[in-house]
Write a structure and sequence with these properties.
Largest sheet: 5 strands, parallel
Bound molecules: ligand PTJ
Order of helices and strands: HHHEHHEHHEHEHEHHH
Strand content: 5-15%
């Protein structure tokens, strides 16, 4: 489905249609539409733009992925439907693996999400058909993990709330979250929280990673150490609470 070019909300409608097409194709879970709608509300309050603070978090996150030894991007149905190419490109720009991780997991959906990533150019995708390997203490289907996430030192999680971030951190990993809700449990627990729409965050991070690639690991780590996630989150919350003024 495509909205007419003259529609004032064309970009927003086209994005919604990627979700509904994803639902029809079995990539997106029905609850993924609700999750997306919550994100839209926060994005509206942010003026549907990348704030300075979010751009800072994106740059620090790109630095952390580049400085990591075994970085992984965790992909769910919503991300596979709305920005699969960008997820694949960020993985390649940062040397990260891609792993499917679903809350509403079924063998059919795992394969569909993997195939969306393969169609977007991924060479390898982890997390399909995994048996017996789990994140300790996480009882939901999100707890099922493949070797990419289990062995990772840095994990990027996008568009999810819940207890996985805490458990990943309990395993000694650094977590980067993309979440338009600065109050979510995931946003609060992550090491770097990007309060931005994933469709803007990923392209920004790809650009950042390409620029930062020439820096050595020590400089990248210093950039990460200089980033203050608590302050960043507080400022993002203030921007939302104070109301967007065009
Ligand atoms: O594909 P599955 O089976 O893993 O299912 C995905 C669900 C629906 C379970 C997953 O999206 C989810 O956990 O949803 P939640 O718990 O509602 O959390 C989603 C978070 O992402 C909310 O805080 C939203 O505000 C935020 N969000 C939604 N859309 C976007 C977003 N953040 C950034 N960009 C968006 N486009």
């Amino acid at each position: 489905v495509e909205a007419p070019v003259s529609h004032p909300r064309k970009a927003s409608l086209d994005l919604r249609h990627r979700l509904t097409d994803g639902l029809e194709g079995g990539v997106v879970a029905p609850a993924g539409l609700i999750a997306f709608g919550r994100g839209e509300a926060f994005d509206y309050l942010l003026g549907e733009r990348t704030c300075f603070q979010a751009a800072e978090a994106e740059r620090a996150a790109a630095a952390l992925l580049l400085a990591a030894e075994r970085p992984v991007l965790s992909v769910n149905g919503n991300v596979a439907a709305i920005c699969p190419r960008e997820a694949v490109e960020l993985a390649s720009a940062t040397g990260s693996k891609l792993e499917v991780n679903l809350f509403y997991r079924s063998p059919g959906r795992e394969v569909k999400v993997r195939d969306a990533l393969l169609a977007a150019g991924a060479k390898a995708v982890y997390g399909v058909g995994v048996k017996g390997k789990t994140i300790p203490g996480l009882e939901s289907e999100r707890g099922r993990a493949d070797e990419a996430i289990l062995e990772a030192d840095v994990v990027l999680v996008m568009l999810e709330d819940g207890d996985r971030t805490e458990k990943l951190k309990g395993m000694g990993k650094k977590v980067i979250a993309v979440d338009l809700n600065p109050l979510s449990r995931t946003a609060r627990k992550a090491d770097i929280t990007i309060v931005d729409n994933v469709v803007r965050a990923l392209p920004n991070m790809i650009k950042d990673a390409k620029e930062l690639k020439k820096l050595g690991k020590e400089k990248l780590k210093a950039m990460v150490a200089a980033f203050d996630n608590e302050r960043n989150l507080r400022e993002m919350e203030e921007i939302i609470r104070s109301g967007f003024k065009p």
